From TrEMBL:
One of its GO terms (molecular function) is pyridoxal phosphate binding. InterPro entries: Aminotransferase_I/II_large (IPR004839), HTH_trans_reg/aminotransferase (IPR051446), PyrdxlP-dep_Trfase (IPR015424), PyrdxlP-dep_Trfase_major (IPR015421). This is GntR family transcriptional regulator. Pfam families: Aminotran_1_2. Residues 6-291 form the Aminotransferase class I/classII large domain.
Length: 302
């Protein structure tokens, strides 16, 4: 479904994307590659993970087409971490043109680490295959069940280029001796029965309805915010009005019982104030109420 080139011997089962990335960082660091290009803005948790493993993140800007690939060379990094299906936090989808450019960069000697974040949930756009299919020998593909089933189910996978299979397997072996077999067998049965596909078909319209409710409420209660990333995924990105401090907004919203994610902790260079709003686990009426409270919070700090 994702157009990934994956032979069984190239697939490693891991305890979520977090572990897959951590193991890969160990392998790259052992080869002397301690610099990794990342999308800017990106995930604060990912930046923390990189730094904890002694890897220096180098920011590459993101625009309306996704990662600005032509700026990769200037980063000096030999590897780049991307979320092309639905970038966090901006929600942008890496364009076909940029995917071609990224694959060409990889084939010229770079390594792409593709976190297939939110790929299963799209609403207003056609599906796009994974970047890995364009350069399978120069791409590490990471996926998990955290968004589709539950983050507490620590189960994911890494599809590896041939040269990384053995060192990655070695790192995995001595990290935990292997991911739990019972969870793997249960998920395999869910796949084989068609239950996983039925589950995805059932939740997509539910998440779309929640997305629609939140977008409509924000346009009513916070019309001055620019919404992005609405075509897919499980969160929205909202650029705040000029002059509004995002941390102050987050604190004012929390006092009203609404938790939002600020974007600044995921930036490596300055940018416009913005927040990310998750909607998957919240009922539609509660989302409408939250949007109204968020509008109050913004007006309070302006």
């Amino acid at each position: 479904m994702r157009a990934v080139a994956a032979r069984p011997e190239r697939v490693a089962v891991v305890s979520g994307v977090g572990q897959g990335l951590a193991l890969l960082l160990q392998v790259l660091a052992a080869e002397g590659r301690r610099k990794l290009a990342v999308e800017d803005p990106g995930s604060p948790g990912t930046l923390e993970l990189l730094r904890a493993h002694g890897v220096r993140p180098v920011g590459v800007p993101v625009d309306q087409e996704g990662l600005v690939v032509r700026k990769l060379a200037a980063s000096g990094a030999q590897a780049v971490l991307v979320t092309p299906a639905h970038q966090y936090p901006t929600g942008v989808v890496l364009s076909a043109r940029r995917r071609t450019e990224l694959a060409a960069w990889a084939r010229a000697g770079g390594l792409v680490v593709e976190d297939d974040y939110d790929a299963e949930f799209r609403y207003d756009r056609e599906p796009l295959g994974a970047v890995q299919g364009l350069a399978p020998e120069r791409t590490v593909y990471l996926g998990s069940l955290s968004k589709t089933l539950a983050p507490g189910l620590r189960l994911g996978w890494a599809v590896l280029p041939g040269e990384l299979v053995e060192p990655f397997a070695h790192a995995k072996r001595y990290a935990d001796l292997g991911t739990g077999a019972i969870d793997q067998l249960a998920f395999a049965a869910l796949l084989e029965s068609g239950g996983y596909d039925r589950h995805l078909r059932a939740v997509r319209p539910r998440y779309r309805a929640r997305r629609d409710a939140l977008v409509a409420a924000l346009r009513e209660h916070l019309p001055e915010a620019e919404l992005r990333g609405v075509a897919a995924g499980l969160h929205l990105y909202a650029d705040l009005p000029d002059g509004v401090d995002e941390q102050a907004v987050a604190e004012a919203a929390l006092r009203r019982g609404v938790r939002v994610a600020t974007v600044a902790p995921g930036r490596l260079s300055p940018g416009r104030a913005a927040i990310a709003l998750g909607y998957a686990g919240v009922a539609e009426q509660r989302l409408r109420e939250a949007a109204a409270l968020l509008g109050e919070a913004v007006r309070e700090v302006r």
